[in-house]
Design brief:
328 residues; 4 helices; Helix Hairpins; alpha/beta; Barwin-like endoglucanases
Length: 328
């Protein structure tokens, strides 16, 4: 090829396309992070559901204990009242005994008219004393039992309150984490949208630069037509003039620098055999677009053209094709 190095990237949209490619890769990474964030969000939702159910269960248990405690307080009040009444009755009996003096069993026997009356009197005296003692003992036991139950219920209620506070704190942390993950997903979506906008802008700029490069190449070729081309091998196809079509083999290259006519390389520059296609000829190329015969090369002989591309990937994608071009 007739390329003068070092290379120059004037007229090429390749840097912009590289920037666009970098943003596209960034969007792919954003998509991966978004998927990971969504999975984390699902995990938070599951944990939140379990924690909310646990909190509801604790509150239900606490309500049940509160009801049981209220019932225990009522029963304790009754037990205290019975105990108080029993104590008053016992005190009254003791006062009566004190005032009347001790009941002498012999006196009861001597005062009875019959033996049955004597036995009945003794039994009644003993039964009354035993009943008083039993009533007081049962009342004390009931009071102590309800006091113990009340203390146990209070301890359980306190434990449940601590658990409820801990679960509520966990619920708050999970809710905050979920909100943060949702915010992160929104940020990723916003960044992806911004990148897509920048990609579209860069592509548009690259296309504009390449179109301008083609126009500049055509103008420079037209101004350098006095430069005689290097001798070429015997052509395998006749020269053409005017508007015509020609079937050629089209290859691709991506070197930087200047063409054989001195113009900077750029999209639309076509290397030709000048003895077949005169330099400066405008060419319509299927699958490529408009171009201009602005370069030559030692391997370009006969019905062969070589198309310039900004990147090696694009050149490799074009490969080698047989096409029909239009010369203007």
């Amino acid at each position: 090829m007739g390329i003068a190095l070092p290379a120059s990237s004037a007229g090429s949209g390749s840097p912009l396309r590289q920037q666009a490619q970098g943003l596209t890769q960034q969007n792919s990474a954003i998509a991966s992070r978004s998927r990971a964030a969504v999975l984390t969000l699902y995990a938070f939702d599951s944990r939140l559901t379990r924690t909310q159910a646990q909190l509801a269960s604790l509150r239900s248990q606490a309500a049940a204990i509160d009801r049981q405690a209220a019932e225990t307080r009522r029963e304790l009040a009754v037990a205290k009242q019975i105990f108080s009444v029993s104590q008053r009755n016992l005190a009254a009996r003791l006062r009566s005994v004190y005032e009347q003096g001790d009941s002498d069993p012999l006196a009861i026997v001597l005062g009875a008219k019959t033996l049955d009356d004597a036995l009945t009197g003794l039994e009644t005296e003993r039964a009354a004393a035993e009943t008083d003692r039993a009533i007081v003992a049962r009342a004390r036991m009931s009071r102590d039992r309800y006091i113990g139950l009340q203390q146990r219920l209070a301890a359980r209620a306190q434990k449940l309150r601590r658990l409820e506070a801990s679960v509520s704190a966990t619920l708050g942390v999970l809710s905050s984490a979920k909100a943060g993950r949702i915010s992160y997903l929104r940020q990723l979506a916003s960044q992806k949208k911004l990148n897509q906008s920048q990609i579209a802008s860069l592509d548009a700029q690259a296309q504009a630069i390449e179109a301008q490069a083609r126009r500049v190449a055509v103008q420079q070729v037209a101004s350098t037509q006095t430069v005689a081309p290097a001798p070429a091998p015997t052509p395998t196809a006749p020269p053409v003039t005017g508007a015509a079509t020609m079937t050629v083999t089209a290859t691709a290259y991506t070197l930087q620098g200047h063409t054989a006519t001195g113009a900077p390389v750029g999209y639309g520059v076509v290397a030709v055999d000048p003895s077949v296609i005169p330099l400066g000829t405008r060419i319509t190329i299927p699958g490529y677009g408009e171009g201009v015969a602005a370069d030559t090369g030692g391997a370009i002989q006969g019905a062969v053209i070589d198309l310039w591309f900004p990147t090696a990937a694009e050149a490799a994608n074009w490969g080698r094709r047989t096409i029909t071009i239009t010369l203007h």
